[in-house]
Amino acid sequence: AGVAQALLRNYFDDTIHNDDDIRQVTEAPLLGLIPHFRKKVEGLRALESPKSGVAEAFRNLRTNLQFMAAGKSSQVIAVTSTVGGEGKTELCANLAGIISLTGKRVIVLNLDMRKPTLHERFGLENEQGMSTALSYHTAISQVIQHSKYKNLDIIASGPIPPNPSELIQGKRMEELIEMLRAAYQVIILDTPPVGLVTDARTLMSLSDISIYLLRAGRSKKAYLRQADALFQGGTIHGFSIVLNDVEMTKEGYGYGYGYYEEEK
Prior knowledge:
The protein is α/β, with parallel strands linked by helices. It is 38% helix and 17% strand. The protein is built from twelve helices and eight strands. Strands 1-8-7-2-6-3-5-4 form an eight-stranded mixed β-sheet, sandwiched between helices.
């Protein structure tokens, strides 16, 4: 009876669990897997626990990104997901941190203006930011905040505007990215979920690389169809998928994560 129950459960289980589930639906490149972690860490996990499996996963992601945009002096990386709660802001913050260690100047822009949390991750304020810069209330130089990490800056979302989509799709957004390209080598866009609003597609079209984040045990297999449609559309540069919160086995899931110290 137990076997039958397990088979039935698998049959009706419509969530993504591992990289095989992704490969069955789409040929979009799988950029990396981020393991599940148990302990809470203050600040950026990839920097605060450098020997952890999570830090190793982000180093692997950093290496794979170098292959994706070879030969460009600056990279704009858009990060999106289907819905909220898949770990987008966490990914943006830690990816920015791990890239900043290589000496590159990195900035993260919080464009998820309806539900902003990026500034909290860095312990910074949110009085002004993307909403005030895009609506011409503040100069771009005024909204850049330095984090406690070297080479790593952020622009918070700013006060929640009544018209985030109009701001993101306006000309000022393109101008802002071009200005930042002159000062930073990597610009990471924390975009709104692509399944909920069209803003993310606009931002992906302005980017050199677009990361579609899925969360193991939470994201539905149906989300892969949307990801695949974006990939097949051919209009988005450097489209790839990252699977977050993967349960790693002691064998290390074939990636050797098991050999790294557990979160210290």
